[in-house]
Amino acid sequence: MRPWLDRTGHLSPLKAIVFAALFVPALWVAGAFALGALGGRPLHAALLQMGVWTVRLLFLTLIVTPLRQSLQWPRLISVRRMLGVATFAYAATHLTLYSADQSFNLAKVASEIISRIYLTIGFVALLGLATLAATSTDAMVRRLGARAWRRLHQLVYLIGVLAVTHFFLQSKADVGQPIIMAGLFAWLMFYRVLGKLFGKGGRVPLWAVTLLAPVASLLTALGEALYFWLKVGVSPLRVLDTDLSLIAGIRPAQVVLAITLAFVAICLLRLLAKPDAGWRQRWRQRLNPRPA
Amino acid sequence: MLIRKRQGWEIPESQATPEAVYHDRRRLLKAMGLGGIGIGALAAGLSAGFLTGAPAQAAAPPAPPADPSASLYPAKRDPRYTLDRAITPAAIVTTYNNFYEFGTEKDIYEAAQQLKLRPWSIAIDGMVEKPFTMAIDDLLHVMPLEERLYRHRCVEAWAIAVPWTGFPLKALVERAKPLSSATYVRLQTFLNPKEAPEQNQFWYPWPYTEGLTMAEATNELAFVATGLYGKPALPQNGAPIRLVVPWKYGFKSVKSIVRITFTNERPKTFWEVLGPTEYGFWANVNPTVPHPRWSQATERVLGADKRVPTVIYNGYGEYVAGLYKDIKGEKLFM
User: Fold this and answer.
1) Which of A116, A223, B117, B299 has its CA 20 to 30 A from that of A183?
2) What would the pLDDT profile of A44-95 be if each residue is shown by its tens digit?
3) Distance in angstroms between the alpha carbons of the first and the last residue of chain A
4) Residues paired with residue A203 on neighbouring β-strands, in sequence order
5) Considering only CA atoms, which of B152, B334, B167 is closest in space to residue B247?
6) Distances in whole angstroms, Cα of residue A52 to Cα of each of A90, A121, A142, A166, A288
7) Per CATH, which fold does B13-61+87-317 belong to?
8) Are A39 and B107 in contact (CB under 8 A)?
9) Best residue in A52, A172, A247 to probe B by mutation, most B CBs within 10 Å?
10) What residues have CB less than 8 Å from B7, skipping those under 6 apart?
11) Chain A contacts of B204, Cβ < 8 Å?
12) How close B68 comes to chain A (CA, Å)?
């Protein structure tokens, strides 16, 4: 089945747009590489960029369910598979570029993966993604059975933890980006816990989603302050203080707050707008007119 | 997010325009016979040009003063220091830099232009006969400037080869007249969050601090660079004055120095505080001692699209191996 068609074989604009968008980061990196715009170590820069995008795509894959539930937009599920497969493709490219940076000395690549714990973690995460990608087809769902398939694919949460850990451990001194991703990942996990506790069909009530945004941000701030306290011994209160201003640049807790509040805003808009349920169907009919 | 990164040959507007203004100012002043009159005349000249419809760029903000030491460069090359590889293109060395005061990525060269290079002075203190402070231009005029070709090996497993201009650290140590009780030299970078915004992130142990033993500091290879590629140094390369110790990982070669202290206590260095299990005081290059997170066996040669084996002491063993032969129980290669 072509990725831009829905299950009835019609063109799905949603799927087509998402499918095309998934190529954009990779093409951007490739273009920058070709133009010599990636600095003195272009392979290294490209492999880092692809790694960062792998984690971002994993986040997007995992936010499909919260979005689908909160927006009452069941069709959104149709893009989750391609998001997940793209996550794997980016991760595989990330490792390929790492090998290229090691001049394709595969023995060296293997020994590095074994002897550096953050590489071991990243590699295990990649193996996990490969397993999920390989079992992502309809045929595999049928073969495994829905229940076993779902259990297997719950591995994605563990992969998320491994991926963020790998991201965090490879940082030299600036842990801002991995801390943001850790905060967002925590938010995704809390959303699912709240869904189990208060949800109707997994859907978390708006008050809980609203409350979750500052909680995730605060946890991000506390995590970061704790990290710097343990690492360099600076007062956690002083670090937390910078989260209330922009004096030390945009802080991870602020980014997490902005993204999670944006989610709340989308939910609110959805509640207020309540679009006419028929518009999508009419649009689809226009795109795929049935022969008279 | 992806941001388009400018290449070395593409001069940022912030640099190009002021230079044009600078030259234009001279021409204007000369034409008006006002050479030597100060800023007021300059401002009048510029605004007059603006009012009479001169090109818009003439009204751009005044240029930073030209480097007053420019006439000292290029200095004569010292033929004793040769390379086993090509000199790295200047476009790479001036755009691919670690300088955490200006950002944690490598493309900090634009942000680094905020660093004001004059007035600049260096304080010499601690265990010396008499502490003193010296303006950079006074220092440059009394020091024996020469050019040396050195390999530079970053702890991140990449390498460049640079023509540095400067003088042996030994010459500065002799001028400082340290007491015989001094066993270490501590070198520190400026502290000015207004120009270097990352210094607002106070959890880094600013100011950047590095150190050498007295024996290392007086080794002939230990160099103080004030220029590179036959010109005064640019901010991103540690202008106006920096250390270059090519047998050690790059982070030892502290940039933009304002203070040199002689002491009998081993300095606690910036990276030692941040990552005591990864970056030590000695940090001598050694391909057989991996960084905890990556191998140091090979290095990527910037600009050459290849990876080559790393050599112990970055190939400078004949100069420096003797410094360490009697030192026991120290992590010399971390």
Assistant:
1) A116
2) 999 999 999 999 999 999 999 999 988 888 899 999 999 999 999 999 999 9
3) 25
4) A200
5) B152
6) 9, 15, 33, 11, 37
7) Sulfite Oxidase; Chain A, domain 2 (3.90.420)
8) yes
9) A172
10) A36, A37, B91, B95
11) 173, 232
12) 30
Q: What interface predicted TM-score (ipTM) does this complex get?
A: 0.86
Q: Which two tokens stand for residue A243?
A: 């989260």
> What gap in Å lies between CA B255 and CA B314, rounded to an integer?
20
Residue type at A267 in one-letter notation? C
Per the CB < 8 Å rule, is B203 touching A239?
yes
> How far apart are the two ends of chain B, measured CA to CA in Å?
34
The set of residues, in sequence order, having a beta carbon less than 8 Å from that of B261 and lying 6+ positions away, is B124, B125, B126, B185, B186, B187, B188
Q: Where along chain B do its domains lie?
A: 13-61+87-317
> Quick one: how far is CA B149 from the chain centroid?
15
Task: Decide: A159 and A58 in contact? Cβ < 8 Å.
Answer: yes
Least confident of A53-67, B3-17, B285-299: B3-17
Chain A residues close to B160, C-beta within 8 Å: 40
- A108 and B295: CB-CB below 8 Å? yes
* Beta carbons within 10 angstroms of residue A206's beta carbon: 14
Any idea how long chain B is? 334
Nearby residues of B2 by Cβ (< 8 Å), 6 or more positions away: A25, A28, A29, A32, A49
3-class SS at B204? Answer: coil
Contact at 8 Å (CB) between A280 and A288? no
Contact at CB, B2 and A28, closer than 8 angstroms: yes
What chain B residue is nearest to A231 in terms of C-alpha separation? Answer: B274
Enter the tokens of residue A42. Answer: 């272009």
Contact predicate A182/A217, CB 8 Å: no
Tokens for B132, please give them. Answer: 């003193």
Both tokens of B192, joined, read 């000015």
pTM: 0.84
Q: How far apart are CA B197 and CA B257, in angstroms?
A: 18
Sequence letter at residue A165: T
C-alpha A206/C-alpha A213 separation (Å) is 11
DSSP letter for A233, please.
-
Instruction: Indicate the helix (H) or strand (E) that contains B273.
Output: helix B270-274
Tell me, what amino acid is at B269?
T
**pLDDT tens-digit profile of A246-280?**
888 899 999 999 999 999 999 999 888 765 556 66
